[in-house]
Amino acid sequence: xxxxxxxxxxxxxxxxxxxxxxxxxxxxxxxxxxxxxxxxxxxxxxxxxxxxxxxxxxxxxxxxxxxxxxxxxxxxxxxxxxxxxxxxxxxxxxxxxxxxxxxxxxxxxxxxxxxxxxxxxxxxxxxxxxxxx
Length: 133
Description:
- With 133 residues, the protein is mainly beta.
- The protein folds into two domains: 3-56, no CATH class; 61-128, CATH 2.40.50.
- It has one helix at 13-22, and strands spanning 28-31, 37-38, 53-56, 61-70, 80-87, 92-95, 110-118, 121-128.
- It has a five-stranded antiparallel beta sheet, with helices on one face. A three-stranded antiparallel beta sheet has the order 2-1-3, with no helix packed on it.
């Protein structure tokens, strides 16, 4: 992997996750005890209580579990969606789906993670994934 594997001693799980995103890398954790994926970054596994969590790059494939449209005036940036996405690895996270109108995001839609840059920081977003026909 990269230099993010050797964070400063005072760097917690959230800070390490943020550093990775800012470098264009999407990481989640896996428990060394029960081997289940974990997200949001933590120090202790929420499944089994083990305190050894390892970082890995997930596949990035996911499915929209839930979505809503946040309405804003055009001068405030316009409407956008907020979606809960279930990753293939078994974790659920909140983000947005880009590349389609906010109201076109649907429950069950296949999406793929990517890192966008917003205000100089890495931001995890999703884009619709083409369905195989």
